[in-house]
Structures are given as structure tokens and as C-alpha cells.
Design brief:
GO biological process, one term: regulation of DNA-templated transcription
Strand order of the largest sheet: 2-3-1-4
Shape: elongated
Number of strands: 4
Structural class: alpha+beta
Pfam families: AsnC_trans_reg, HTH_24
Number of domains: 2
Largest sheet: 4 strands, antiparallel
Radius of gyration: 20 Å
CATH architecture of the largest domain: 2-Layer Sandwich
Helix content: 25-40%
GO cellular component, one term: cytosol
GO molecular function, one term: sequence-specific DNA binding
CATH class of the largest domain: Alpha Beta
Order of helices and strands: HHHHEHEEHE
Oligomer: single chain
Keywords: DNA-binding, Transcription, Transcription regulation
CATH topology of the largest domain: Alpha-Beta Plaits
Length: 156
Amino acid sequence: MEKNQSTLDDLDFAILSCLQKDGRMSFTEIAERLTVSVGTARTRFNRLLEEGIISIVGRVDPDKVGFRAYAHIAVYVRPATLKEQVAQEISAKPEVSFLASTSGDYDLEVDVMCPSNNHLVDFVNQISTIDGVYQTKTTLYFKVYKYAQPDLNLLK
């Protein structure tokens, strides 16, 4: 079920902000910070979880666990009618951390994390063989300065 921001109120956003700061924050602490009951915090959290607005994951620092090759890959698809099929095939690959359809010079924008440059080369070679991939252009990220979730305060 897809929800939009209009279904969220200020309390929902406040709970989400608390959890972005500390994903392990207890319902008791959330309730105290937001001056609501523990039951209210728990109920709201469960609704956010059930509606797919929030999910529980362990977020790792890619560099600290061994990912040494990050890249942005621009993918050109010909004919354009194959874009969805190409996107689905690329999306299924575990190296992909971000994938979007774009306007402009290329059709798909792909961000990948690989353990090594050799792995990255193999990955680029793999996607180059997908039916409909006309061309790729890879840009390496030498150093990542910020890797973050969106700032919910921007929606206020």
C-alpha cells in the first residue's frame, strides 16, 4: 500500500525523526520526548510499520564492512520500450543501492557498492550484456562525504 505525506501528522513525523536519530530508541523514551503516552507512541509506530512508511533495518557503514568501490552508472537503453525490463533486471542485482529512471542524457541512474574494483568491472560488464542496454558510463566515487536518510524537517 502506497502512502503519501498527507496521511502523516506532526506526531508521526516527530516519531520518525526520533527513530532517525536513534533507531533503537524505546517507546518510553519517544513518549517522554514527545509528551505522549507509551501506548500512543507504540500504536503510531506500529501503524507506520504496517503501512510501509518505516522499516526496521541495520544500517551499516559500507566502507567499514569492506565495500571499497562505489560508482554511479549512467545506463542508456535502446529501444526505450525496454527501459522497465532493463530496470527490473538491474534492480535484482545485490550490488545496486539506488536505481532511478531519469530525464536527460541517459535513461537509468544506478548507484552500486562493490567490495573491489575488479568486482565493479565485472558488474559493469554484466549489465552491459542485458538486452536493451546500449551504453553505460561509469563514474567512480573516490570518497563519500555524506550518506544519509532524508531530513524530514524539509517537509515542514
